[in-house]
Amino acid sequence: MTSKVLLDALLPLVADLSRQIDDRERYRRLLHTLRTLFPCDAAALLRLDGDLLVPLAIDGLSSDTLGRRFRIADHPRFGVLLANASPTRFPADSSLPDPYDGLVDGLNDANSGALEVHDCMGCALSVNGRPWGLVTLDALGAGRFDGVDMASLQAFAALAAATVNVAERIDDLAQAGEQARQRAEAYRLGLEESQGKRELIGQSAAQLQLMDEIRMAAPSDMTVLVTGETGTGKELVAHALHAASPRAHKPMISLNCAALPDTLVESELFGHVRGAFSGAVADRRGKFEMADGGTLFLDEVGELPLAVQAKLLRVLQSGQLQRVGSDREHRVDVRLIAATNRDLAEEVKRGHFRADFYHRLSVFPIRVPPLRERGRDVLLLAGYFLEQNRARLGLSSLRLSAHAQRALLDYPWPGNIRELEHLIGRSALRALASQPVRPSILTLDAAALELEHPPAITSALPPQEGTRAQPEPEPTRGLRDAVERFERKLVGEALARHEGNLAATARELGLDRANLNRLARRLGLR
Predict the structure, then answer these.
(1) For residue 125, what are the β-bridge partners?
(2) What Rg do the C-alpha atoms of the chain give, in angstroms?
(3) pLDDT tens across 439-465, in order?
(4) What residue spans of 175-204 are helical by DSSP H?
């Protein structure tokens, strides 16, 4: 490669440094130029995030790659690249597995022999003296990089580092005060949960709007009501609100209002004193006191008894509470976030929810969009779950065929992200078990996902003695009717398969047993 060719290719990127361009477009141009200069089948830009590498832009890789999170300990090639300041090329016979095996676009799904990368190189990027991430190049054929001038790649890597540095500085000016990883990835917000690191992943317009609303609401102390269907990730939204708030250094305490008997909800929220009721052998703090200075998250708030709603309203208005069995006042400073899959405005009309409590909760309402409204986000989320299961199953690569990707995009996802997560895990396990010889690269096709011909739901629980059979549902009059009709059929079918066993049915549907019990009662199935 001559100096003139390199200079001609890099000049437009240098010009871009002085322009305000969307980060994704800036990174797209960077990788397009990279593939123009260097002969490769795929290129990627990855940002270092703790012990993970997060893809920010890809060219030549499957769409679900953007949703994957590559743990460096699981991918030794990435570790080698990060450890070297200069570009690194791996020999074709390297024993280290390539993270992109099976992910290069345009491959023949039936030809598993063409799925492995045979020529791979990359370079670590540093910004302001700190490790920032990687740029990688991969080719399916051995020897494709024999003629590559490593000095030219080093020069390109320096420009790439300048590009990401400029992108972050522009974001600093546009969104002062936001964390660097939020600026570098406009489509996601990282958060920490007790189970480990979880993310809100997506690039769709609906997801970007959700992220904007989280950014608006997080810095304030406003009460937030998170609404959305089951499985959309309402709890992740609550954690994101807390993580981006001034209370992030204080605890976030969660309570599933549907998982407790009505008689215990008040004690869980406000605490109790010794002797307040049978079994109260010692004083106990409630969730409000535990969350003092931080955030209290009430999941399934629509399940709260009316009497408890009235007491909660008083605490929210005055900041004072009394433990059960005590006359002593306790003052707390708590930010409340609530979540529900119910239409609380409709519940108010029916007399099942207090109007004053509803208005106190919905100071800042946030609706989490269902998966069917998020377009190609389903592939990014699938990639995230595929990478999790790849590591869990000890595979070199776990991928989706083109037909499987199409099936995921066409499916309506009544169970949303939770359904997708369980589907990927179940399909991967079954597909691996069906292989006569354990493969290193496993491809999930549409048939393995069992989405092309979903089983028809035609029956509910048979009527039992002492109960009356449910009448046929009336013709659908709107979305709520359609959802309830589907829930009744889905839950009824599952209960019938497990002969009414709540625990087994809850495991199949991915629900808490208490939630399932309440749902079945509301639908008239118990």
Answers:
(1) 133
(2) 26
(3) 999 999 998 998 854 443 333 334 443
(4) 180-184
Query: Residue 316 has which token pair?
Result: 């929210």
The whole-chain average pLDDT of the chain stands at 81
Q: Give φ, ψ of 516 to 5 degrees.
A: -65, -40
DSSP, res 394: T
Which tokens go with 379? 């592939």
Which residue type is seen at 75?
H
The overall pTM is greater than 0.70? yes
Whether the Cβ atoms of residue 284 and residue 271 lie closer than 8 Å to each other? yes
pLDDT tens for 63-91 read 999 999 999 999 999 999 999 989 999 98
> Residue 3's pLDDT is what?
58
Calpha distance 486→494 (Å, rounded): 12
Distance CA 68, CA 50 (A): 15
**For residues 417 and 379, what is the distance between their CA atoms, to the nearest angstrom?**
11
User: Whole-angstrom Cα distance, residue 270 to residue 291?
Assistant: 11
Separation CA 62–CA 42 (nearest Å): 10
Percent of the chain with pLDDT over 90: 42
Alpha carbon distances (Å) from 58 to 55, 68, 385, 484, 517: 7, 12, 18, 41, 45
What gap in Å lies between CA 232 and CA 393, rounded to an integer? 26
The tokens of 356 are what?
Answer: 């004053």
- pLDDT average, residue stretch 482-501: 79
